[in-house]
Amino acid sequence: MKGAMKRCLLVAGLLLCLGVQASLLARGSKSNTMKETTANMLGRKNIFIGWVDLSPDEWSVWGYESKAEWGELIKEINLDLQKNLQSKYLTDRTVTGAKDRNDENAAGNDLYIKFADVKIDENTYDVSLSIHFLDPTTNSDIASIPVRTYVGGRGGFERHVRSGLDRVAEKVGIEVMATAPGK
User: Fold this and answer.
1) Predicted TM-score of the model (pTM)
2) CATH of the domain spanning 33-177
């Protein structure tokens, strides 16, 4: 009898934990689909996308053979982010992307989207970063989103990071376009 009671309590406890976890995940994803900033960026037609600055010196941490191989992946990830922003989330805007981590030349653009505080969780591979929407003429913040974790999908390291950055792109699109994609 005591064994059956312990099993029931254990199952109930596990179900409760799963319910709490599911509600936290739902709450986190909801903020990714809603406009959070009050800034009106609809008139900003030419947008410069900054570099997601993953440290080139962390190549061995993530299991890459060389700094050059890791650097190539960083470049591919950034180019994919820029392409996703242009093709999915900022479709009626002209998007120019940084060419490398030192490229911050947003001259001639109406908006500079800068990513800062970039980190990848060593256990989950989720990407954390802050997003700053800057006026390139004054280099001042129009709006910003503090450090937040963008959860990737299933799969290995690279796929998870790319998926997390697609969520970042979606968030940028919502903030600039003032609506969720497809609405």
Assistant:
1) 0.80
2) 3.40.50
